[in-house]
Write a structure and sequence with these properties.
alpha/beta, zinc, Alpha-Beta Plaits, Aminopeptidase, Peptidase_M14, carboxypeptidase, metalloprotease, 2 domains, disordered N terminus, four-stranded antiparallel sheet, 13 helices, hydrolase
Length: about 425
C-alpha cells in the first residue's frame, strides 16, 4: 500500500512537471446578461468560439461570465456586436498577479490566529494553510485536535480541526472549503470560522457557547489539496482534482462524483469538461475518503449539519441539486435556516445572499455532496454555499474582501444555530 502511494506521488509529480504554467495575461472576463431575445445567441457564441465560462447561462435571465483569450478577442467582439456587456476583468493576468501575493512563508508563531489577525489579510500556500491550522490547534489544545480524512491522489493531507466545548462526542457539524480548487475565498472563510469559534469558546458569547455545548465541529479548509496546489503553481483557474483520465484531460469534478443521482444533465461524461463526473460513481480518491469518513462520524456521534463552501454568486442553497422539482422531507427547516443565514449576512455589510434549492437557484448538479449527505448519508441538514461576490471579481476576489466575507459568513452561521 505504501509503495502504491509513493508510485502515485511520483506519477503525479511527473505529470505536473509536464504541464506548462498557464499565463492569463491579456485574457478578458466579460459578463453578458441574457434575456429571452439573446440567450440562444450568447450560448451559440460560447459554443462556436469554444470559450470557457465562469458562469454558464443556464436559461434566459441568467448571466454568462465568459473568459476570452487574446487571440479570440477580435472574433468575440464581432460576435457580440449589439449585446450589452460588462467587463469583469480587463486583464485577468494582471488581476491574478495582484491577488496572488502569498510570498512570505509561514513560520510557527509568526501569524496570530484571531479572526482579525494578519493571516486573514492575504491568500496563502497550501503548506502554510496546514501549518496555520496546526498553530491554531496548538493555541487551543484543550478543546481541539487535528483530524484527517486521509491523503489525496498526490498524497497530500485533507486535514481539518475538530473543535468541542466542555466534552467531546456530541452530534457533529462538518464544514469544508475548496472542493473546487480555484475558489480561494472559501479556504480563508472556513478558517475564519474555525478561528472565530475558538477565539470565542472561552469568552462571553452566548451563541458560541450554546453551539459548543450542543455540537462538535469538524472543519476542513481544503477538500481538494491537489487542485488547490495546481492553482498556485500552474493554472489559477483550475477547478477539478488531478487524477488522470483516458485521453489528454486530467481531473474529476469532486462535486459531481458522489454516488447518488450521479448521471444526468447536471454533470458531464466528458473528461475535458469542468463538470466531468468521473468514470464511475465515487471513483475519485478524495470522494472515496469522504465516503469512508462521514459514515464513521454518523455512526459514532451523528452528524447534524454539513456545509460545502464554494464561490462565487452569493447563494446559500438547500437540497436538491439533482432535481428541480423534488425536495427533502425537511425542506421547510432547510429554507428557514437558509433565510436566517441570509438575513444575518446582509445585516453586517449589506451583502445580499439568495436562498433556495440548488437546482432552482444556480443550476442542476448531479452527483453533488449535499444530496448524498441528506438522502444517503443520514445527515439531517445539508447546504451548499456560494460566497462573494456576484461577478465584479468572480473567482479572483481581492484579499481585502477576506475579512468582510468572514465577518458576514460567521454572523450568518451564528444566526442559523440560534434558530436550530
Amino acid at each position: 500500500m505504501k509503495s502504491l502511494a509513493v508510485l502515485s506521488t511520483l506519477v503525479a509529480s511527473a505529470l505536473a512537471a509536464a504541464v506548462p504554467n498557464v499565463n492569463y495575461s491579456g485574457y478578458k472576463v466579460v459578463r453578458i446578461p441574457t434575456e429571452q431575445s439573446n440567450h440562444a445567441k450568447v450560448v451559440d457564441i460560447i459554443k462556436t468560439l469554444k470559450l470557457d465560462t465562469w458562469k454558464y447561462p443556464k436559461a434566459a435571465g441568467s448571466d454568462a461570465d465568459i473568459v476570452i483569450p487574446p487571440n479570440q478577442l477580435s472574433a468575440f467582439n464581432k460576435a457580440i456586436a449589439g449585446l450589452k456587456t460588462e467587463i469583469m476583468h480587463e486583464d485577468l493576468g494582471a488581476s491574478i498577479e495582484s491577488e496572488s501575493t502569498h510570498s512570505s512563508a509561514f513560520k510557527a508563531g509568526s501569524y496570530a490566529t484571531a479572526p482579525d489577525s494578519e493571516w486573514f489579510m492575504d491568500y496563502h500556500s497550501f503548506d502554510d494553510h496546514m501549518n496555520w491550522l496546526n498553530e491554531l490547534q496548538s493555541q487551543h489544545s484543550s478543546n481541539s485536535e487535528i483530524v484527517s480524512v486521509g491523503n489525496s491522489y498526490e498524497n497530500r493531507p485533507i486535514q481539518g480541526i475538530h473543535i468541542w466545548g466542555a466534552e467531546q462526542g456530541k452530534p457533529a457539524v462538518v464544514w469544508h472549503g475548496t472542493t473546487h480548487a480555484r475558489e480561494w475565498i472559501t479556504t480563508m472563510v472556513v478558517e475564519y470560522m474555525a478561528a472565530s469559534l475558538l477565539s470565542n469558546s472561552s469568552a462571553a458569547d452566548a451563541t458560541v457557547q450554546a453551539m459548543l455545548d450542543s455540537y462538535d465541529f469538524y472543519i476542513f479548509p481544503v477538500a481538494n489539496p491537489d487542485g488547490f496546489v495546481f492553482t498556485q503553481t500552474r493554472d489559477r483557474m483550475w477547478r477539478k482534482n488531478r487524477t488522470p483520465n483516458q485521453g489528454a484531460c486530467p481531473g474529476t469534478d469532486l462535486n459531481r462524483n458522489w454516488p447518488y443521482m450521479w448521471e444526468g444533465s447536471g454533470s458531464s461524461p466528458d473528461p475535458c469538461d469542468e463538470t466531468y463526473r468521473g468514470a464511475q460513481p465515487g471513483d475519485a480518491p478524495e470522494t472515496q475518503l469522504w465516503l469512508e469518513y462521514l459514515p464513521r462520524l454518523v455512526e459514532s456521534q451523528g452528524v447534524k449539519q454539513y456545509i460545502d463552501w464554494h464561490s462565487y454568486s452569493q447563494l446559500f442553497m438547500t437540497p436538491y441539486g439533482y432535481s428541480c422539482s423534488e425536495t427533502p422531507d425537511n425542506h421547510d427547516m432547510h429554507i428557514s435556516l437558509a433565510n436566517a443565514f441570509s438575513q444575518a449576512v446582509e445585516a453586517v455589510h449589506g451583502t445580499s445572499f439568495t436562498t433556495g434549492p440548488i437546482c432552482n437557484t444556480i443550476y442542476q448538479a448531479n452527483g453533488n455532496s449535499v444530496d448524498w449527505a441528506v438522502d444517503v448519508g443520514n445527515i439531517e441538514l445539508g447546504f451548499a454555499a456560494e460566497l462573494r461576490d456576484t461577478g465584479r471579481y468572480g473567482f479572483v476576489l481581492p484579499p481585502d474582501q477576506i475579512i468582510p466575507s468572514g465577518e458576514e459568513t460567521w454572523a450568518g452561521i451564528k444566526a442559523m444555530f440560534e434558530n436550530l
